[in-house]
Amino acid sequence: MAGALQLASCTSQPTSDGETMTSEQTATEKLPADVHSYAQPAEAVTKHLDLDIDVNFDQKTISGTASYLIDNLTGTDKIVFDSRNLQIENAYLGDNIEETTFELGETNQFMGQSLTVKIKPDTKKVTIKYKTSPDAAALQWLSPQQTAGKKHPFLFTQSQAILARTWIPIQDSPGIRFTYNAKVKVPKELLAVMSAENPVQKNSTGVYTFEMKQPIPSYLMALSVGDLVFEKVGPQTGIYAEPATIKAAAYEFAEMDKMLVAAEKIYGKYRWDRYDLLVLPPSFPFGGMENPRLTFVTPTVLAKDRSLTSLIAHELAHSWSGNLVTNATWDDFWLNEGFTVYFERRIMEELYGKEYADMLNVLGYQDLKHTIADKGADNADTHLKLDLEGRDPDEGLTDIAYEKGNFFLQNIEKAVGRARFDQFVNDYFNTFAFQSTSTDKFLDFLRSELIKGDEELAEKINIEGWVYSPGLPEGFTAPASSRFAKVEEAYNAWKSGKPAAQLTTKDWSSHEWLHFIRMLPETMSLQQMADLDKAFNFTNSGNSEVLAAWFLHSIKNNYATADKALETFLTNVGRRKFLVPIYKALNATPEGKKKALAIYAKARPNYHAVSTVTLDELLK
Ligand code: BES
Ligand code: ZN
After folding, report:
1. Nearest CA residue ID for atom 17, ligand 1
2. Is the pTM higher than 0.70?
3. Distance between CA atoms of 217 and 179, rounded to whole angstroms?
4. What confidence tier does 29 reach under pLDDT thresholds 50, 70, 90?
5. Angle at 320 between CA 319 and CA 323, to 5 degrees
């Protein structure tokens, strides 16, 4: 493992200050080396991918060819790709597919293997024939039983952070962008969709073609295959889902077009043409994934009251922060997520008012405090700029990037005023559109375009304190929410003995309920638990956020009434954000651990590899 990592760092081509250049960067616009990819883009880099694949549900494999147009920048005799757990069958050069040799490097657990293909100084095209393994980490193959319709199998990919290499041989670094075309063959009764221009209905051949005209990084490669239908929402927006889910989804996300309009008002034109959603089965390990033109989303946000749609605002916001201007390496992850959380809250404020966005900020702040406490106040993983060398990036990608990143940007906004900050961020997105950017490049831009030598302002913005220091900078003012102040009033009344049924909770949203449940004392009597449950029906809530927060209390207080609902939740839902705290709470007592292991044994086949990697470690 260490050997493979060393290989990666000593075979890259650092410039004098340890940074490598890709084709589009001049000497003055260097990007840091990506320690999570074997690719050497300064030598030979991919510009376009033609993917031609067959999806085989019986074998649980994808097989076919990945054909790349490349730039050989130095006249080198090799191009290096990333691969993990792939069967590489052949490699060819040029249009008349002349066979060439290739070599797979040493295997590293999360990095996989380098795939070095022999090329010529004038090589323009490289084709790789390959097949995935049935346990490819990016792929989840669902049986009909694991879908909403129960009749057809389902497949989806999850490529972020470094899993694209488990289903395509690829230069798997966020600093490298390419356009793509794809031809995908699937069983005739299913529809295929990708992070590209998509079909809206099935055809009789089962062969679908795709085009992504804008250059994207590899972690945004995405494919899903299932019994899918499409429903239009607005002129530019729509939803793909299983027939059993489409109506609920169309209701829940009816406001997505308005979100797009609000987003464009803040940061300018949406650059990806259409914005559609794909609602996945509940095993999807994330809340959402910003695959360009087609956000993948968990069905656990279908709360029936549109109360969890800030997640859509978040994934939509990535169309600017992340997909348009991309973190160069996973150490710069906060550039993707911090900007996106900031933008998500701006979109929600535009649509539902400041009081609404304030609630999201307070909940985010609670999450952030939790993560900082969990990691330890001095932990370098609580810096915005990370150092993930030698580690699986998945481990380092925490709430810090999201919420600390957001509060850093809110802090800059406060220092210069909204109008000036909006202009600055607009300029930032336009300057770096369709490029990758590092923390250093962003900070250079911040200094030259906003701070401009104003020392008082520089002190207020406090780059050092936010970006390169742990925890939160001194003097940070925690966000507050007037709607939550009312929740706190109700809570205090309950704590002083007022029966739950008599509390004023009219018109509370999911966020208010979540705040209330999070405030409940660690230890409660069964009588108190039952009183709350009787008044508010938490155990049978249809709201996944409410349920997940409530189960933490039911576990700690041995409230057996919720056991059945807990087991049902854990066996159906694969969203890691919910699973981890719940399994952790169970794991805290010997009794609970037994329960956790019994449920996990049953539920594990329903989880994506992204979740099982974390849970296997937790429950081992
Ligand atoms: N891009 C992320 C998901 C991700 C991050 C996948 C890192 C793999 C590695 C996505 O935009 C995201 O942040 N999703 C959140 C929801 C959001 C509202 C905070 C999630 O899934 O919980
Ligand atoms: Zn995100």
Report:
1. 311
2. yes
3. 9
4. low
5. 60
Query: How many angstroms separate the Cα of 103 from the Cα of each of 89, 123, 305?
Result: 11, 18, 54
Phi, psi of 55 (to 5 degrees): -105, 115
Residue 564 β-bridge partners = none
The radius of gyration of the chain from alpha carbons, rounded to an integer in Å, stands at 24
Which of these, 543, 531, 464, lies nearest to 495 by C-alpha position? 531
| Token pair of 310 as six digits | 């800030």
Which residues, judged by CB distance below 6 Å to any ligand atom, belong to the binding site of ligand 1? 160-161, 286-290, 311, 314-315, 318, 337, 397, 402, 577
Q: Whose CA is nearest to atom 3 of ligand 1?
A: 289
Q: 341 near 261, Cβ under 8 Å?
A: no
Which residues lie near ion ligand 2 (Cβ < 5 Å)? Answer: 337, 340
Q: Summarize pLDDT for 430-449 with one digit per residue, the tens.
A: 999 999 999 999 999 999 99
Tokens 């409530």 identify what position? 550
- 402 catalytically annotated: yes
Q: Which residue has the tokens 């937790």?
A: 618
Three-point CA angle 334, 337, 340, nearest 5°: 130
Contacts of residues 227-231 at CB distance under 8 Å and 24 or more positions apart, as own/partner, are 227/147, 227/149, 227/151, 227/152, 227/154, 227/189, 227/190, 227/191, 228/190, 228/191, 228/193, 228/278, 229/191, 229/201, 230/200, 230/201, 230/276
Q: Left (φ > 0), alpha (ψ -120 to 50) or beta: where does 393 sit?
A: alpha
- Cα 581 to the center of its chain, rounded Å: 18
* 248 secondary structure, DSSP code: H
Per the prediction, the chain carries an average pLDDT of 94
Structure tokens at 124: 């323009």
For the record, the structure tokens of 40 come out as: 């050497």
> What is the average per-residue pLDDT within 606-610?
94
Q: Hey, is 49 helix, strand or coil?
A: strand
In the residue annotation, 389 being an active-site residue is answered as no
The set of residues, in sequence order, having a beta carbon less than 8 Å from that of 306 and lying 6+ positions away, is 251, 252, 253, 254, 255
